[in-house]
């Protein structure tokens, strides 16, 4: 309201018209800035899985493969009618969806080969010697050197 009254009084401004226009532009920018929201808009689809309708998009390629295999087996190989072919495809798709829908790594990671561990019995050999053992070893070496010198 203050901005509108100020703009109306600027038309009767005694200053040159260029200054009055500049002041009106500044006041209109201030008015626009005051209308903006203090909150930022956020994209709500960030972090979500892409979907095609109710179906997850990551499932479409495996489903197409399952449909192709079921068509080849049921309709092509066994000469079954379309009801059985579609039933086998629906069974395969539903099974795949249940196994891999939320966290496919839970099921599919079980098929990764695990390393083969073996046990062995080896006597322990100390890599780093304690300070006392080093001192006794050094003393023994100096004694042996003295005996060799004589």
What keywords describe this structure?
single chain; 150 residues; mainly alpha; two-stranded antiparallel sheet; 6 helices; 2 strands; 3% strand; flat
Can you list the strand order of the major beta sheet? 1-2
Tell me the major beta sheet. 2 strands, antiparallel
What kind of oligomer do you see?
A: single chain
The dominant shape is flat
Offer a quick outline of the entry.
It contains 6 helices and 2 strands. The chain is flat, with a radius of gyration of 41 Å.
If you had to describe this structure to a student in words, what would you say it looks like?
The chain is mainly α. Among the domains are: 2-35, no CATH class; 51-102, no CATH class. It has helices at 2-10, 17-35, 60-77, 82-100, 105-108, 131-149, and strands spanning 51-52, 55-56. Strands 1-2 form a two-stranded antiparallel ribbon. The radius of gyration is 41 Å and the shape is flat. The chain starts with a helix and ends with a helix. The mean pLDDT is 76.
Q: How does the SSE layout of this entry go?
A:
Blueprint: H1 2-10, H2 17-35, E1 51-52, E2 55-56, H3 60-77, H4 82-100, H5 105-108, H6 131-149
Antiparallel strand pairs: 1-2
Helix pairs in contact: 1-2, 3-4
């Amino acid at each position: 309201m203050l901005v509108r009254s100020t703009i109306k009084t600027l038309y009767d401004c005694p200053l040159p018209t260029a200054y009055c226009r500049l002041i009106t532009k500044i006041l209109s920018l201030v008015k626009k800035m005051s209308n903006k929201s203090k909150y930022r808009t956020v994209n709500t689809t960030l972090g979500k899985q892409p979907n095609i309708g109710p179906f997850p998009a990551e499932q479409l390629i495996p489903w197409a493969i399952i449909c192709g295999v079921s068509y080849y087996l049921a309709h092509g190989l066994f000469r079954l009618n379309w009801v059985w072919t579609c039933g086998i495809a629906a069974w395969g798709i539903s099974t795949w969806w249940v196994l891999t829908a939320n966290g496919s790594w839970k099921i599919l990671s079980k098929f990764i080969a695990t390393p083969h561990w073996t046990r062995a019995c080896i006597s322990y050999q100390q890599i780093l010697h304690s300070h006392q053992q080093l001192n006794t070893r050094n003393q023994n070496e100096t004694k042996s050197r003295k005996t060799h010198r004589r």
